[in-house]
Design a protein that fits this description.
With 218 residues, the chain is α/β, with parallel strands linked by helices. The chain has 2 domains: 125 residues, Response regulator (Rossmann fold), CATH 3.40.50; 83 residues, no CATH class. A 5-stranded parallel beta sheet has the order 2-1-3-6-7. Strands 4-5 form a two-stranded antiparallel sheet. Helix 8 packs antiparallel against helix 11. It is globular. It starts with a strand and ends with a helix.
Amino acid sequence: MEKYGILLIDDETAYHAIVAALLEPHGVTVRRAGDADAALAAVQGEPAAMILLDVQLGADDGRELVASLRRMRPWVAECPVIAFTTMQPPDGDRYFRDRGFDGWFHKPFQASGLLALTGQCLGTDLSGALPDGGESTLSRLLGAEAAAAMVERLHDHLREAVTAIDDGADPAPIGHRVGGLAGTLGFPMLSTAWLSLQDSAAAWPTVRSLTIEALGRA
């Protein structure tokens, strides 16, 4: 049976944007659902290679939704359903496996972790998909020296933005400014992540993690 990609079930739309920005440029289709009803409708469609399911799904409980999803279609019974959550139970992965999940992917997450998990479920190697960056494009437009200086300036802005939000600054205007700059310079994943803070600060731990990971690759 052909499988199209992944199904992301999460009530926080910032994660819809971030996960799609990370995976779709590399040919992975991401179908999205924001609550239990949308999730049950989504599994009536094409089979997915993986389901990422938020455990604390707004008014719904992902731990109760797993069994319902499994009953909906035969392909779901065989599909890896991964708990996607900030929860950190003492018994870790076993806690989620005892409740019908096939694994656990913790929020906040790193881009490399999501790519590795998705590649494993799709049976393909996505490890070469990193880094997210447009320095080569800038080099063609501006020359190598000017491009390197501009990217380093972006890195400085990212470090300053992380420090400011950690110190209590409002994420929304900072996300707008930094996300716009990252997008202009050709860093789509970082741009999408930071712009998502305009609508909700809930994804800040993941935006922070993705940013620190990107700076570590710089």
